[in-house]
From TrEMBL:
TM region(s), chain numbering: 61-83, 104-129, 241-264, 276-303, 323-340, 352-375, 409-430, 450-478, 484-505, 526-547, 567-589
One GO molecular-function entry: metal ion binding
Protein name (database record): Transporter
Locations listed in the record: Membrane
Native species: Pieris brassicae
Pfam families: SNF (PF00209)
GO CC terms, sorted: plasma membrane
Keywords from the UniProt entry: Disulfide bond, Membrane, Metal-binding, Sodium, Symport, Transmembrane, Transmembrane helix, Transport
Disulfide cysteine pairs (residue numbers): C144-C153
Family label: Belongs to the sodium:neurotransmitter symporter (SNF) (TC 2.A.22) family.
Length: 624
């Protein structure tokens, strides 16, 4: 104990004296690129983009999505890398030093990434649970014989048995109401007249036989009742704790702790696996998917352009929201990751590479998803439109049901869920690192006890995630997802760009980039000036208006949340931006007035000594 106290005292003396604990750095530029890639390429590329692409005009959606990347995603991505790399500071100190008026922006990003880290790990826990049961071979989501299954349960496996001897008439059988039932009987039961194996007669018009037939996938009932344990849970009745989710959540945080135990020094080695291995599994799933019956129809459904959709405001709004969602900007994580770079690292190349890779990965994942959805639609005898979903509905309901129809289903289930687990976990490392950096930047003495900081962060986040392990936990998860990674990050993104381009000055920023050996020709200078000064702020503000106009209260399935839950959601969103006005008040309290509010402080300076830069006669080229 005495030895421990002496070490703490020694560290404190080092910090207050001349020896500040040295800041860690990436082992190589490739580690940084892979860390950014692992952070940006996540579950959203797999379960959100393909659905948005199909819903918003197929291949035509790639045009607004690419444009939004160029005028919003890439500029903010690069700006955050520049701020972190130039100062070697986390977002809290970086934005506080660039302009006292924007002192609260860093704290806003910390609030956002903290909330995301808490609820996002719940998704990772779900994927771990599915991975474990797949390895065990307990694929219960394909059966309708469990206690929690309803009469409307539909199983593709059972349906295949019913369809074995079908001949293409109204007498053909399908699985409905827990037995093999003829299309003719279903038509009559749902108020129509029988016609053939695909249609019923509604007067003189034909309608698809399943129009009024309620069918709930067995995988959906498994996800809601077995995994989440929703039961009769509501906001007023939270239900019971689901211990299997608690165990998986704890295991996820233990893995995250072990990966980030030494910060970028340990995480930098793991990213080689977490960033690259998902591509191996995506490729394996794609090769298998395109060989399935009906895969071609699914891919055509995904990519066939509907150019008229480009005239819809919703298409452009979805493209912009997906850009923020996918790239993880305005959360502080990218500033943090870049702060561990060498001063002269070419983060311009890194930003462009990661953004292009993210864009192409989204398209690639769409082929993986829709090839299998086409197969699933063919098996069910419905349109691809009837099985296409996004979010957890795709990852834990539709896709798992389709995997069970493949040969060797256990293998494909293991590959798919393990891929989701790695994608989700890889996206978490940057968030944990951002929280840790905020702590050690505030108390530098803790850099020598970094593992303790990581343990504290992971344990607190684990405790905060426990309410989402109850029967009604998915409602809190939905509320956080609905209000955190939404309109708030748009405002934070606007504030970040305004702080650099308008308050600090676009010319100063470009000069800073030159000191880091990133010199641009006239075309690139015009581009970066244009997007940072005008495109990003105005486009983001336009998207904010669109999001607020199109806003709908949060819900889960058919359950509409009560008013107090909606109010709580708005409070969560406001809590992520409240630090901005508080930061302004703090700056005024500290005596900043007039233009001093918008001038950089003495803490805004290059991360290296002036003699180490090309122009070694200035303390800070930003002041030229």
């Amino acid at each position: 104990m005495c030895k421990y106290v002496k070490n703490i005292v020694k560290d404190s003396i080092s910090v207050n004296g001349s020896e500040t604990p040295k800041r860690a750095s990436w082992g190589s530029p490739l580690e940084f690129i892979l860390a950014c890639l692992g952070y940006a390429v996540g579950l959203g590329n797999v379960w959100r983009f393909p659905y948005l692409c199909y819903r918003n005009g197929g291949g035509a959606f790639l045009i607004p999505f690419f444009l939004m990347i160029m005028i919003i995603g890439l500029p903010i991505f690069y700006l955050e890398l520049y701020v972190g790399q130039y100062t070697a500071l986390g977002p809290l100190k970086a934005f506080q030093s660039i302009s006292p008026f924007f002192s609260g922006v860093g704290y806003c990003t910390l609030m956002v990434i903290s909330m995301i880290s808490v609820y996002y790990m719940i998704i990772v826990a779900w994927t771990l649970y599915y991975t474990i049961v797949s390895i065990i071979g307990n694929l219960e989501w394909g059966t309708c014989s469990n206690d929690y299954n309803t009469d409307f349960c539909y199983s593709g496996e059972y349906d295949s048995r019913c369809r074995e001897n079908n001949t293409g008439t109204a007498a053909d059988l399908t699985y409905y109401m827990r037995r093999c039932m003829s299309i003719e009987e279903i038509c009559i039961m749902t108020g129509y007249e029988p016609y053939n194996d695909k249609y019923c007669m509604d007067g003189s018009e034909t309608v698809l036989w399943y129009t009024n037939a309620t069918r709930i996938l067995a995988s959906e009932e498994y996800y809601n009742q077995r995994v989440l344990g929703i039961g009769e849970a509501t906001w007023e009745n939270w239900g019971t704790i689901q211990w299997h989710l608690v165990g998986c959540l704890f295991a996820c945080w233990v893995v995250a702790f072990l990966v980030v135990i030494k910060g970028v020094q340990s995480a930098g080695k793991v990213v080689y696996f977490t960033a690259l291995f998902p591509y191996v599994m995506l490729t394996a799933l794609l090769i298998r998917g395109v060989t399935l019956e009906g895969a071609g129809e699914g891919i055509l459904f995904y990519l066939t352009p509907r150019w008229e959709n480009l005239l819809s405001a919703r298409v452009w709004g979805d493209a912009a929201s997906q850009t923020f969602y996918s790239f993880g900007v305005a959360c502080g994580s990218l500033v943090t990751l870049a702060s561990y770079n060498k001063f002269t690292n070419n983060c311009h190349f890194d930003a462009v590479f990661v953004c292009v890779a993210n864009f192409l990965t989204s398209i690639y994942a769409g082929f993986v998803i829709f090839s299998v959805l086409g197969f699933q639609a063919d098996k069910m005898g419905v349109s691809v439109d009837d099985v296409a979903q996004q979010g957890p509905g795709l990852a834990f309901v539709v896709y798992p049901e389709a995997l069970l129809q493949m040969p060797v289903p256990q293998l494909w289930c293991i590959l798919f869920f393990f891929m989701l687990f790695i994608l989700g976990l890889g996206s978490q490392f940057a968030g944990i690192e951002a929280i840790n950096t905020a702590i050690v930047d505030r108390w530098p003495v803790l850099r020598k006890r970094y593992w303790m900081v990581t343990a504290f962060t992971c344990f607190v986040c684990f405790l905060l995630g426990l309410p989402m392990c109850f029967s009604g936990g998915v409602y809190l998860f939905t509320l956080l997802d609905w209000n955190t990674a939404s309109w708030a990050i748009l405002l934070i993104g606007i504030a970040e760009v305004t702080a650099v381009s308008w308050s600090y000055g676009i010319n100063r920023a470009l000069q800073d980039l030159e000191t880091m050996n990133m010199k641009f020709n006239i075309v690139l200078r015009i581009f970066w000036k244009g997007v940072w000064l005008f495109a990003v702020p105005f486009a983001s503000f336009a998207i904010l208006i669109f999001v607020l106009v199109e806003w709908t209260p949060p819900s889960y399935g058919n359950y509409e949340f009560p008013l107090f839950a909606d109010i709580l959601g708005w409070a969560i969103g406001i809590s992520t931006i409240i630090f901005f006005p508080l930061g302004v008040i703090w700056a005024l309290y500290k005596g900043y007035r007039g233009m001093d509010l918008f001038r950089p402080t003495s803490d805004w300076k290059p991360a290296v000594a002036p003699s180490e830069t090309e122009a070694n006669t200035y303390d800070n080229l930003a002041y030229l």
